[in-house]
Design goal:
269 residues, alpha+beta, 2 helices, 21% helix, 26% strand
Length: 269
């Protein structure tokens, strides 16, 4: 005979949620963790932004120096298609003259009023290979400066900016205080705190080798005689110092010597 044994029902376990204290503790822990994540993310973002802007500052300085080096090297360039004899260069090169239409196109160093000495450089060259070469207006010697081409160039320090010369702006004076200028460096990244140009010249006297001097200085034994034909080999040392706008402790100084590719040929006064 089959006897059925009754099954015993398991005890039911009681079910319940978190207490208010547990919820509060969990919320506090979550907030602490979230605050840490936000802090780390914020600091990481700030560090990345600082590194990016610091890199851009260094690049801004380098690009400013490279632009000056490339352009100053061309000072006095007449144009590859313009042929002149060595004895006439001094009279016909309008990009290396003491007076072209009343304007000096010599490579020279000066400064804007209120800025340190030798913080501006001016020069001229035949950018477009015009033949015959034109400095301004429509005449070979550039006696008119009413319109393009006006092949006058320069760089200067101006209130924390590195400026490039962009034209006469209707004027007839070519110096560090006149004309139109435009900032090369980014004022949001870079404050230029120092800029200097040092012009050096070494001369050879084609008329008489025993007397050769660029600027007719003493001793008299080497002073050129009037009308001696002189070849001046020039170089310019450029020193540029800048400071990051974001971090005043971050500064950079760049120095480069530029060999001017076009020798100046002139007659001794």
């Amino acid at each position: 005979m089959l006897v059925m044994t009754p099954r015993r029902c398991p005890h039911r376990r009681s079910q319940g949620g978190f207490t208010l204290v547990q919820l509060l503790i969990g919320l506090v822990v979550s907030l602490v963790i979230l605050s840490g994540v936000v802090y780390v993310f914020t600091k990481s973002s700030q560090t990345s932004l600082y590194q990016v802007r610091s890199t851009r500052f260094v690049q801004d300085m380098r690009e400013g120096m490279d632009r000056m080096v490339r352009d100053v090297r061309r000072a006095g360039y007449m144009g590859v298609d313009y042929d002149v004899s060595s004895t006439s260069v001094a009279l016909t090169n309008p990009f290396s003259s003491t007076s072209v239409g009343g304007i000096s196109t010599l490579l020279r160093v000066s400064e804007k009023t209120g800025e340190p000495a030798d913080s501006c450089i001016l020069y001229a060259y035949n950018r477009n290979d015009d033949n015959p070469p034109l400095v301004g207006g429509t005449t070979t010697l550039g006696t008119e400066f009413s319109g393009p081409p006006v092949e006058l160039y320069g760089f200067r320090l101006d209130a924390g900016d590195l400026d490039i010369y962009t034209g006469l702006n209707g004027g007839t004076t070519f110096n560090c205080n006149s004309g139109s200028w435009q900032a090369v460096t980014d004022p949001d990244l870079t404050e230029v705190i120092a800029l200097s140009f040092t012009l050096n010249g070494e001369c050879e006297n084609l008329t008489e080798v025993s007397r050769s001097d660029c600027y007719a200085a003493t001793p008299s034994s080497i002073t050129p005689v009037t009308d001696d034909l002189i070849v001046e080999i020039r170089d310019v040392q450029i020193t540029l110092t800048g400071r990051s706008v974001d971090d005043s402790s971050l500064t950079q100084t760049l120095t480069q010597k530029v060999s001017v590719g076009n020798n100046r040929i002139y007659e001794a006064p």
